[in-house]
Amino acid sequence: MTIQETAYTADAMAGVSVPNLIMSSPLIVGSADIERILSALEASLIATGGSHGE
Questions:
Q1: 12 and 23 in contact (C-beta within 8 Å)?
Q2: What is the CA radius of gyration of the chain?
Q3: Helix (H, G, I), strand (E, B) or coil at 40
Q4: Which of 53, 52, 47 lies closest to 3 in space, CA to CA?
Q5: On the chain, which terminus has fewer CB atoms closer than 10 Å, C or N?
Q6: For the segment 6-52, what is each residue's pLDDT rounded down to a tens digit?
Q7: Could you tell me if 52 and 42 are in contact, meaning their C-beta atoms sit under 8 angstroms apart?
């Protein structure tokens, strides 16, 4: 699966335009939304063999 597909299945929208990662958030973002998006991104990077900076 691609980063976009994996993130989408975790209810987050992400796109890749090398070398950028583009994230789409709800119009009103709360801390729970940010946490869900970041968790989905981390899972997507791990699932696709990417790096999450740790």
A1: yes
A2: 11
A3: helix
A4: 47
A5: C
A6: 888 887 777 778 788 787 766 688 899 889 888 988 888 888 887 65
A7: yes
Cα four-point dihedral sign 39, 41, 42, 46? positive
Amino acid at site 20 = N
Q: Quick one: CA torsion of 43, 1, 54, 40, rounded to 10 degrees?
A: -30
For the chain, which residues make up each domain, given as ranges?
A: 3-47
Cis bond before residue 26 (omega within 30° of 0): no
Residue among 38, 36, 35 at smallest CA distance from 21:
38
Determine the pLDDT at residue 4. 79
Measured between alpha carbons, how far is 22 from 10 in angstroms, rounded to an integer?
16
